UniProtKB/TrEMBL annotation, chain A:
<feature type="domain" description="Rhodanese">
    <location>
        <begin position="278"/>
        <end position="360"/>
    </location>
</feature>
<keyword id="KW-0067">ATP-binding</keyword>
<dbReference type="GO" id="GO:0005524">
    <property type="term" value="F:ATP binding"/>
</dbReference>
<keyword id="KW-0808">Transferase</keyword>
<keyword id="KW-0472">Membrane</keyword>
<dbReference type="InterPro" id="IPR001763">
    <property type="entry name" value="Rhodanese-like_dom"/>
</dbReference>
<comment type="similarity">
    <text>Belongs to the HesA/MoeB/ThiF family.</text>
</comment>
<keyword id="KW-1133">Transmembrane helix</keyword>
<dbReference type="InterPro" id="IPR035985">
    <property type="entry name" value="Ubiquitin-activating_enz"/>
</dbReference>
From TrEMBL, chain B:
<dbReference type="InterPro" id="IPR003749">
    <property type="entry name" value="ThiS/MoaD-like"/>
</dbReference>
<dbReference type="InterPro" id="IPR016155">
    <property type="entry name" value="Mopterin_synth/thiamin_S_b"/>
</dbReference>
<dbReference type="InterPro" id="IPR012675">
    <property type="entry name" value="Beta-grasp_dom_sf"/>
</dbReference>
<protein>
    <submittedName>
        <fullName>Molybdopterin synthase sulfur carrier subunit</fullName>
    </submittedName>
</protein>
<dbReference type="Pfam" id="PF02597">
    <property type="entry name" value="ThiS"/>
</dbReference>
Amino acid sequence: MIMDRFERQVMLPGLGKEGQEKLRKASVLVIGAGGLGCPILLYLAAAGVGRIGVVDGDEVSLSNLNRQVLFGEKDLGKNKAEQAVAFFQHKYSDINWFAFPEFIRVDNASQLLKSYDLIIDGSDNFPTRYLVNDACVLAKKPLIFGAVYQHEGQVSVFNSFRNSCNYRDLYPNMPAATEIPNCAQTGVIGVLPGIIGNLMALEAIKWITGLGKILDNRILFFNSLNSQSYEVEISPQYQSRAQAPQDWEAFQQMNYELACEGIELLDWDEAFQRAGHGTMLVDVRELDEQPPLVCSVLFKAPLSEFEGYFDQLEEAEALFFFCQSGIRSQKAALRLKSEFPDKTIFSIRGGIDALKSSQFRNG
Amino acid sequence: MENQISVKAFGLVAEKIGMNDFQMDNPGNPARFKQQLFERFPELKPLKFTLAINKKLAAEQTEIPQGAEVALLPPFSGG
């Protein structure tokens, strides 16, 4: 028998040559080449995943080196995706590597995800986590999820089958980016993302080869201080899923940084249904912007002089903000929310651009 | 008859209350549970976290069974 570099895993019952062939044919996109991404990449490459893409717009800095084990002092200041790929380039001749030295955004997500079978999220902030989740739901791609906080980590596999749960089933309400401190603020021992990243790589290999049972509709918590793990079953939360963009067009109009600040989005239909006594539909566009909206509960508060309207806005119990495409209205909603935290405030998804002409007449 | 539940806290929730687990009287359902939790630990009020009852995601109207284990699961974002 001819030895090859996969001998020790091919001999495993349940993996075999077939499993190895699945790994060779598989393509995996790893988002974030940081504390999680580094161990994920190390083990996916060692296992022989045929094509691996790495997405990261960040540069290596000195404080990364306690956990981002692909990098050393010579990599400081260089792009993480490119340096990660450079690390592997001459290690294994049987893997195709692709570096994307950029952050994943609403305008490049669909393109990045398109040519990969499996997506792994090793990013480090809530806006990106919701963005990647929503993009994977839209693209119908399975997503290996993992994240850490201080001495704890969580791992799950989302969106794997038609009935699989996703991040929004688990966490319907987006936390503000600043609500939960990140590694930079709380610190982390490099081993923890190492463990969680390895669990993620393991789930990826299980998903690809069909070995064992993946964390579908389940989430695993791990605590590195007491070495305990805790598993919870996830079930679909349809109301929460409705908060996610339902198509790529709506996805492109999302601003995940703002959405994570807690401004809820509403469609026009729903806004018109709710409009009535005590509510105010607020146009935050500048006065000369077209087309105008004719509506009985309409109030104009251009963003450029927004603070000047606070007294009048305060009179409404519930406010629905809109602008041309739905971004400025989120900013306006956020500003008012910080001034009047108890008010019911929504931003209308997609703004005037999303208003169909039939609704125009009814409005 | 005594009806106590055990509460397990994770991540930032555990950090804020300074414990990984504690016992309390069964408040009956998640809504009342949260109300009592926030009375005891007002610092949890601004946090977002998910509740699991006996290791299953809990809906607001679910009843908390006798002797249940309720987990407070905040999201993590670090990587």
